[in-house]
Amino acid sequence: MSSQPLFYKNIVPLNKEVHGDWSIEAVSNYKHTSETNSLYIAAIEFIKAANEYPIVFGVAEDETIFPVVILGLRKNENLYVNKKGEWLANYVPAYVRRYPFILATGENAPDQFTVCIDEDCPGFNKKGKGTGLFDKDGNESDLLKNSVEFLKEYQNHIQLTTLFCKNIKDLGLLEPMKADIKLADGEEISLGGFMGINREKLKALDSDTLVNLLKTDQMELIYAHLISLGNINSLMKRY
Q1: Which pTM does this prediction carry?
Q2: How many domains is the chain built from?
C-alpha cells in the first residue's frame, strides 16, 4: 500500500472477516486534524473553499502539481480547529469528511483501489457503539455503502483535478510563491514551498487557449485560486 497520508494513523484494508462485527461512531470532532497545516482539495471544491481558505499548488516528488488549502502558517498547525475539536469554517474539505475511510492503491497496480480504514480512529469499536459496518448477514451496511460511493466519487474528482493541474503546468502559468507575514505580536513567518498562477502569464495566453479554459470551466478554477489568496490575511487574524 502507499504511505500513510496526513492524519491517518493505521490504514488497513477493510475486510468482512476481520471487521464484520465492528461499528463506527460518527466523527464528533476534528482533533485528529489539529496538526495538519494543509490539505489536498479537488477542483470541484474550489468555489466553496475559496470563500474561506487560501488555495495554492504543491509539487510532488515526481513533479506533478496538486492543489491544497492552507490551514495554518506554521508547521503542524491547523487554525481551523479549536481545542474542542470543532471545525471553524462553514465548508469542511472532502479529504476530512471521508475519514476514517480511504482508497489505497497497490504498488504494482496503481489503477486498482482497495477500500481501507484507519483502525486507530477513536470511533471505531467492537462494542456496538454507532453503526455497524456490516449487517448480521455479512452485507455492507448503508453507512458503508454510502462511504464507499463517496470514496469512488472523490477519486473521480481527483482524476479531473490532475488533468487541470497538468494543463496549467503545461501552459507555464505557475510560479513559486512566498508570503512574508508579520503577526500582531511581532512574530515574523515566511510561508513558502508552494506555487501560484501568474496573472500576467494568464493574460498573455492566446485567444484560443483562453476560450478553451473558459469552455472547460478551468478559468473559473483559476480565478477561484487567485481570489482565495486574500484569505491569507484571514489566517493571520486567527492568532
Answers
A1: 0.90
A2: 1
